[in-house]
Amino acid sequence: MSYPQGGYQQGGYPGYQPGPPAYSATPYYGVAQQQSTTTVVVCQPTASHTTTVYRSSGDHFLTLSIVMTFICVFCGGLLPAVLTVAAIFVALSAKDDDLRGDEECARRKGRIALVLNILSVVLTIVFYVIVVSIISIAVTQNKN
After folding, report:
1. What letter does residue 15 receive in the DSSP assignment?
2. Is the dihedral of CA 12, 13, 17, 19 positive or negative?
3. Secondary structure element (H or E) that encloses residue 103, with its range
4. Are residues 112 and 84 in contact, defined by beta-carbon separation less than 8 angstroms?
5. Cβ–Cβ under 8 Å, residues 117 and 68
6. Predicted pLDDT at 67
7. What Cα–Cα distance (Å) separates residue 10 from each residue in 1, 14, 21, 24?
8. Which of 64, 69, 63 is closest to 83 using CA atoms?
9. What's the pLDDT tens digit per position in 31-69?
10. How many angstroms separate the CA atoms of 28 and 100, rounded?
11. Termini Cα distance of the chain
12. Contact (Cβ atoms closer than 8 angstroms) between residue 86 and residue 119
């Protein structure tokens, strides 16, 4: 490869603009020259990422399920008690899913536990309505 007279090739890439011409004057050594150096640091802004972590503080209706189980066992029928025990297991499973980070599944199982508890309340009310109706019918028939 042969180089031009200056010893190196100028303007080798697109967009290259040569600097100012070199001075060929001999410096005057009678006065001390001051040299200043300026360093410019250019920093690009870094990309920032925001991560939202969902952590539920709820118990996914576990407390409601336990309370409803005691109420149904002592005051209600067998079927509402079975539903509330099932609600306890579903609520515990929802809690496990929440700890593993599966929020969608935890919410879904929490809603299932709530529905089971509501069904147990409705069945307990129906049970008491039937019992009261039977007792009132028996009392009115005994009077006749």
Report:
1. T
2. negative
3. helix 103-143
4. no
5. yes
6. 92
7. 15, 11, 13, 19
8. 69
9. 555 667 777 777 777 777 777 665 655 788 999 999 999
10. 78
11. 128
12. no
Residue type, 32: A
Cα–Cα separations (whole angstroms), residue 80 to 24, 63, 124? 103, 16, 6
Answer yes or no: are the C-beta atoms of 77 and 129 closer than 8 Å.
Answer: no
- Report the C-alpha gap between 35 and 72 in whole angstroms: 92
User: How many angstroms separate the CA atoms of 80 and 118, rounded?
Assistant: 10
SS percent in the chain: helix, strand, coil, step 5: 55, 0, 45
Give the Cβ contact number of residue 16 at 10 Å. 8
Asked if 56 and 94 count as a contact pair (C-beta separation under 8 A), the reply is no
Question: At residue 20, does pLDDT exceed 70?
Answer: no
Compute the distance between CA of residue 138 and CA of residue 101 in angstroms, rounded to an integer.
Answer: 56
Residue 11 has pLDDT above 90, yes or no: no
Burial of 96 (0-12, 13-18, 19+ CB in 10 A): middle
Q: Could you give the CA distance from residue 112 to residue 65 in angstroms, rounded to a whole number?
A: 11
The pTM is what? 0.58
Tens-place pLDDT, residues 87-102: 999 999 999 999 898 8
